[in-house]
Protein: Barstar family protein
Amino acid sequence: MNTNNNKTILTIYLDGSTITSIPSFYKQINEQLMQEEDWQLGESLDALDDVLYGGYGKWKDYDLLEIVWKYIAVSERALGIEATKAYYEAKLGAGSPYNQDFVKEKLKHLEEGTGQTYFEMVMEIIESHRDRVRLTKKS
Structure:
């Protein structure tokens, strides 16, 4: 625990050299934040967003969360276009509960080079919590 202007800070470390897929990203998030809970964070951007609000897991008793992401460039490549394409394609198909037109549109933008990668979506979520979450990128 660190303190900064009377606020308690929890620092966690993500090892980007082992974040080589979407499941491995959530595995590290769960290992770093959710070990005190009897449930784990699912592979969901909405779940990541929810947990970053605080009140869950290891950082529920802290004011600020600092994420030190080592070897982030490895993760950026691993969570890039191919992983994102697979993520969207897994949501398509008969019986899928996902909005097929929405998913197809996201996939189209990705293939045209105008859509966000999974890594970029994670970065956007972390940035949206900048009042309580800090990201330190390490190469």
Notes: The mean pLDDT is 93. The first strand starts at residue 2 and ends at 4. Helices lie at 22-33, 45-52, 72-78, 81-89, 100-112, 118-128. Residues 30 and 40 are 6 Å apart (CA to CA).
